[in-house]
């Protein structure tokens, strides 16, 4: 079974995907990490993230980069949304994600274009969302807990800018697949969100 989970930053899609992978005993790929690894490599090599050729050169990143905790930084998230808008960057990372999705036994993948581009024939597709204010509150709390110096207003502005960039790019924009089940986590606890996600996957897989 292939489960595709898409949604904007801090919507809860990562937590939900990990829980789904555990529940169904499936391998999980956080595809955002791939774009973050490209962003981190661009930064490390002092390349220009707005230049497509520079960003493509960084797609050949060292696999060890994927385990670097620095990938979680907000700055890298922002940079990831800049490099991910280049069509050739998306093309460079496409096969790797498709291979993961189509491995024997299935997989759970989360990102922005899983249900639309990477695994259009997924058995279950979820689009996870929450209001920008609530997502900013979650992200702000997370950053504060890590000791990062930032204000709520700054986090909210960043979230809005990232949403705008991810939704308006011409290649693989952040949009729900027409057959995705929508899951709004704005007023749900983590446990309730996971429960609902499992119920939605169950409903979808028995339909096909
Ligand atoms: O999900 P995460 O915040 O780690 O993703 C970082 C950035 O990578 C996103 O803002 C988005 O621009 C990009 N991304 C993407 N397609 C994916 C996953 C992430 O464009 N499948």
Notes on the structure:
The structure is a single chain. With 208 residues, the protein is an alpha/beta fold. It has a single domain, classed as P-loop containing nucleotide triphosphate hydrolases (Rossmann fold), CATH 3.40.50.300. The protein is 53% helix and 11% strand. The protein contains nine helices and five strands, in the order βαβααααβαβααβα. The chain has helices at 13-24, 32-44, 52-57, 74-83, 87-101, 114-118, 132-145, 152-168, 190-207, and strands spanning 2-6, 28-30, 107-111, 124-129, 181-184. A five-stranded parallel β-sheet has the order 2-3-1-4-5, sandwiched between helices. α2 (32-44) crosses α4 and α7 (132-145) packs across α8 (152-168). The radius of gyration is 16 Å and the shape is globular. The relative contact order is 0.21. Residues 9, 31-32, 35-36, 77, 80-81, 84, 111-113, 162, 166 line the site of cytidine-5'-monophosphate.
What's the gist of this structure?
The protein has helices at 13-24, 32-44, 52-57, 74-83, 87-101, 114-118, 132-145, 152-168, 190-207, and strands spanning 2-6, 28-30, 107-111, 124-129, 181-184. By secondary structure, the protein is an alpha/beta fold.
**CATH level-4 homologous superfamily:** P-loop containing nucleotide triphosphate hydrolases
Number of helices: 9
Helical residues, percent: 40-55%
Query: From the 3D coordinates, which CATH architecture would you assign?
Result: 3-Layer(aba) Sandwich
Query: The biggest beta sheet, please?
Result: 5 strands, parallel
Radius of gyration: 16 Å
The domain count comes to 1
Biggest sheet, spatial arrangement of strands: 2-3-1-4-5
- Runs with pLDDT <50, length 5+? none
Structural class: alpha/beta
What's the multimeric state?
single chain
Catalytic activity: dCMP + ATP = dCDP + ADP; CMP + ATP = CDP + ADP
Keywords: ATP-binding, Cytoplasm, Kinase, Nucleotide-binding, Transferase
Domain Cytidylate kinase: 3-202
Subcellular location: Cytoplasm
């Amino acid at each position: 079974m292939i489960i595709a989970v898409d949604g904007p930053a801090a919507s809860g899609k990562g937590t939900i995907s990990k829980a789904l992978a555990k529940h169904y005993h499936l391998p999980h790929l956080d595809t955002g990490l791939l774009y973050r690894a490209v962003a981190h490599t661009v930064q490390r090599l002092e390349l220009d993230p707005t230049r497509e050729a520079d960003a493509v050169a960084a797609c050949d990143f060292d696999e060890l980069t994927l385990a670097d905790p620095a990938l979680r930084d907000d700055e890298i998230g922002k940079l990831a949304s800049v490099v991910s808008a280049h069509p050739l960057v998306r093309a460079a990372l496409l096969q790797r994600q498709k291979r993961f999705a189509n491995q024997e036994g299935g997989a759970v993948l989360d990102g922005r274009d899983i249900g639309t581009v990477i695994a259009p024939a997924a058995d279950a597709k979820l689009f996870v969302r929450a209001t920008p204010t609530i997502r900013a509150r979650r992200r702000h709390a997370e950053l504060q807990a890590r000791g990062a110096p930032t204000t709520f207003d700054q986090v909210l502005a960043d979230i809005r800018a990232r949403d705008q960039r991810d939704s308006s790019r011409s290649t693989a924009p952040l949009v729900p697949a027409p057959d995705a089940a929508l899951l709004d986590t704005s007023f749900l606890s983590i446990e309730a969100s996971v429960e609902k996600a499992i119920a939605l996957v169950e409903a979808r897989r028995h339909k096909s």
